[in-house]
Amino acid sequence: MDVGGSFTSSSKAQSRYPLQEQPIRRRGKNLDRFIPNRSAMDMGHACGWLATMCEENPVSSSPGKDAYRKQLAELLNMNRTRILAFRNKPPTAETPFLQPSSWFHQTKPVKPRRSILQTSERTLDAPEILDDYYLNLLDWDEDNGPVTSVNWAPDGHHLAVGLNNSEVQVWDTTANRQLRTLRGGHSSRVGSLAWNNHILTTGGMDGQIVNNDVRIRSHVVDTYNGHHQEVCGLKWSASEQHLATGGNDNLLHIWDRSAASSNSPTQWLHRLEDHTAAVKALA
Q1: Where on the tree of life does the source sit, at the highest rank (predicted)?
Q2: pTM of the prediction?
C-alpha cells in the first residue's frame, strides 16, 4: 500500500509540472541571411564612416570644422545614416498619380482678387444739384481732365478756366455758357491766369507767358520768355502796364507791356533772384 501510494503521489507530482521536464530549445542567430545589395551601396562612404566610428581616440574638432563638415555632407549628398542597403530604391513616378479632373484643379492658376475700396477716393461739392435717386445727372466726358487754374474778370461776369490739356476756356457766368476756348498758346497745363481788361494773361508749365486778346480770333498777341520752369503766379499792376511773374525756378520778373517781344531773351525790366523756393504769391 505504501509503495502504491508513493507511486501515485510521485506520478501526480510529475503530472502537475509537465513543463519543467521538457528541455528548452534555443535558436541560434543566423547572421549570414542579410546580405546587402552592393550595387545600391556607396562602399567608399561606408568604409570611411565605419572607420570613423571605430576610432578609439577620435580627434577633437572645433565647431567651425563640424559646421564645414556638415555643410559639405549636405552639398555632396553624404548626409546619410544608413550604410548598408538591402534593396534598391523604387523608381520615382514621372507623372503625378492623379485623376484628370483633380489634376486640372491642382494646376489651375489662382487669379488675384481685386481690391475694392470701401470709402470714396474723392468727394466733390455739387451745390444745387437735385438729390433724386432716379435721376442721372453725372456723366464722363471723352477727354476728362482736372481744372488747373481759375480767375475772374474785373467785370465779375466772365470766368477764365485753365485746363490740364493746355487749353483755356472763357465762360459767361450770367448766361451760364462757354464763350470760347483758347488753344495754341501753351504745350502743357495752364497753372496761372490774370486779367487786364480784355487781355487774359496765361502762364503754363512750359515756362511760357502769353497775352491773349479774347475779342479777336487770333488771340495770342504777346509772349514773354524768361522762366525755365513752370509759371506759378501772375499779377498785373494797377497801372495795367507792368506784369509780375513768379516761377518754379525761384525767379521773379517784372515785365513792361509795351516792350513785350518773343525774340528778345532779356525783355524783362527787373529780375529778382533772392528767393530760394517757387514764387507763387504776388500782390
Answers
A1: Eukaryota
A2: 0.52
